[in-house]
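TL;DR need structure tokens for one chain.
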Amino acid sequence: MKLTPLNIALACVLVWVISEWGSEQEQIMSWAWLLALTIFLALIDLGFRLFFKDLKRIWILQIGFILLVGILMVILKIQ
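>> reply
TL;DR here they are.
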């Protein structure tokens, strides 16, 4: 398995969510949503790998995808 930005982002999200489950605060998301997010990001990563064979291009496009999704999430949260 090659290291890509989506794999790194997924690992960071998994570590963050699992580390927060031990605290007394409200859970960030349920196991079902975490599983759905994991499957979604894995499928998106697979799609990038199928359409683009060059690893450098995959890195650039996946970083752009993560930035775009992050910006959209911030915009939607503000409104």
